[in-house]
Structure formats: structure tokens, C-alpha cells
Amino acid sequence: MLIRSRRGWELPENRATPEGFSLGRRALLAAGLAAPLLPGLARADDKYPPGRPVTPEKAATTYNNYYEFSTDKDLWEDAQALPQDPWSISFAGLVEKEQTLSLAELLRQVQLEDRVYRHRCVEAWSMVVPWTGFAMARLVALARPLGSAKFVAFTTIADKKHMPGLRMPFYPWPYIDSVTMAEATNDLAFIPTGMYGKALPPQNGGPIRIHLPWKYGFKSVKSIVKVSFLEKRPVGMWENIQSSEYGFWANVNPEVPHPRWSQASERDIGTGKRIPTQLYNGYGEFVAGLYANSTGEKLFM
Ligand code: MTE
């Protein structure tokens, strides 16, 4: 008998929704409709086990940072106005050929998978989210960067009609942040297009965002429309506003306080409990090697 070996994040057939049998799991995931995880259950065979219960969906989708809508956390209703379809993403800068792909075209060329990640905001709150998406390394491969590219920058849509926060003149819009090529191609770097088995909601960065679980949340750019490959390190929006508080690397470290508050612990928004913060948000075994030769860099700010 042929036994197909299943990767950690794949679902056994009997856990797929009934529709899964007619539509196929991949099609369902692309449409954001499969139910990969039961909230509250952290599956033992996850590739990167979160070690904490999944945050209730309601909490993760109604307590958000998305300054293009508001500086308050309860922006989720306003964010529903952001059109999610059609959506396209352009590859720019140091690439073999600049191109713009529709989200559907992009999704046809990737392998979707489920991953449960811890998410740690620089403001010292955190959550555990079951994402559906694909490896950032795949996005980089599809963009076909030149050998001279050293950084990858992600830009959020700046939709003045639907994003009232863009009227705040103080902020240097559009929202942008970046990582090194080595970080972008590390297996942990992820591109969510879904969460809790549904399409990624606008308030969480729908229809497509990035997630870098070992870094403070502000690096995880929402609702991306442009991926740029650059030789020189770009300045992210937060670094542009206040470089002494928000740097390029922004790796999580409980021992390096933010200039205005401690980073030693964090509030889990699901349970309300304060828990100790971990170095690299607990993902050191996968990413610490990226920084082995980074002497003199402010890795944790
Ligand atoms: N992306 C954009 N475009 N605008 C933002 O304000 N906030 C960042 C990050 N990405 C932000 C953004 C911050 S500070 C955090 S903590 C996370 O998104 C929050 O993601 P969540 O709302 O899905 O929890």
C-alpha cells in the first residue's frame, strides 16, 4: 500500500470540511475557505509549534494596529471598506524584469500551507495566530531578483478613498518596511493570505501581508502591493519617524528595553495574562544564525 507522507502543516483528509471533497483543499485555501485549525487547539505536529493556545479569532481580528485606518485598536469595522478584489502586486527594482501580477496569478504559483505563529507587537502585547499562506522565499523566487539585490522592501496600499488615516499628515506614507535577502528567504518568513481558515480580513492586512514572527510586529507589513529589491538598505516608515525607538532589525529581545518601556514581558490578548518575552520571540533556533556576523548592529531595536 502506498502511504503518502504528510508534512506537519497538512491536514488529514478527514479533517477537511465537507466541501473540501468536491472543491479540493488547495482551491479552498486559495479562496480562504478551508478550516485548517480549531481555535484553541495547537496541533502537536505543527512545523513551528506555538507552545501556547491559539488566540480566539474574535480577539485577533478586533484588536489591531493599522494606522492607515486609525491609531486606535478598534478599527476593524472601518477596515471592511478596503476593496480586496481585484488586487495586484508589483515586483520592482533589482529584478530581471519588473512585473505586476494579479493576486490570483500569484496564488496559482505558490503552495499554500498552514502555520501557527506567535506574534509580538513592540507595544508589548502578543497573540498566537493560525495563518494560511506561503513561504516568502517562494515570493522572492517568483520575482527573480538580480544578484546585486541585498534588501527586500514591502509597501502597503495607500488608498486615500478608503483609508482615513492617510489624512494624518504627520506620517510619511505609504507604510513600508524591509528585510535582508537572507531574512526574506529564511523558512520562517511567511506571506499570509488567510487566518483561522478564512480569507485574511482587511483589518489584519487582507488580502495579503507579510509575517516575520521573530521580529516586532511593526516589521510585518499589511496589505502589500509592491515588493522592491534594493542594493541599499531602505528606511522603514517607523524608522523614518523615530529611529531611536524603531530600527531596521527590530528582533525581539526581552533584555533590550524600548526607550520608553520594558520588553521583558508581554500581555497575551487572548488570555489577558502577562507572560515572559523570549529572545527572537522563541524562534532563535531557526533565525539566530542569520545574525552571527552582525557585530556593531542594533539587532534588537
Ligand atoms: N502595516 C500597516 N500597513 N500599517 C500598520 O499600522 N502595524 C504594524 C503591523 N503592520 C501596521 C502594519 C504593527 S505595529 C503590528 S503589531 C501588526 O501589523 C499588527 O498586526 P495585527 O493587527 O494583524 O495584529
Structural summary, described in words:
The protein is of the alpha+beta class and about 300 residues long. The protein has helices at about 20-25, 25-30, 55-60, 75-80, 105, 135-145, 180-185, 235-240, 285; strands at about 90-95, 100, 115-120, 125-135, 150-155, 175-180, 190-195, 200, 225-230, 265-270, 275. It has a single domain (about 20-290), classed as Sulfite Oxidase, Chain A, domain 2, CATH 3.90.420. Strands 3, 4, 7, 8, 10 and 11 form a 6-stranded mixed sheet that branches. The radius of gyration is 19 Å and the shape is globular. The termini are far apart. Mean pLDDT is about 90; it is low at about 1-40. Bound molecules: ligand MTE. Ligand MTE binds near residues 64 and 205.
What is the CATH fold-level name?
Answer: Sulfite Oxidase, Chain A, domain 2
The distinct bound ligands, ions and cofactors come out as:
ligand MTE
> What fraction of residues sit in β-strands?
15-25%
CATH architectural grouping: Alpha-Beta Complex
Number of strands: 11
The dominant shape is globular
Mean pLDDT metric: 89
The tally of domains stands at 1
Helix-strand sequence: HHHHEEHEEHEEHEEEHEEH
Based on CA atoms alone, the radius of gyration comes out at: 19 Å
CATH-level-4 superfamily name:
Oxidoreductase, molybdopterin-binding domain
Q: What is the level 1 CATH name? A: Alpha Beta
Query: Given the structure, what is the number of helices?
Result: 9
Gap between N and C termini: 54 Å
Q: Structural class per helix/strand content? A: alpha+beta
Question: Which spans of ≥5 residues are poorly predicted at pLDDT below 50?
Answer: 1-42
As a percent range, the share of helical residues equals 10-25%
Largest sheet: 6 strands, mixed
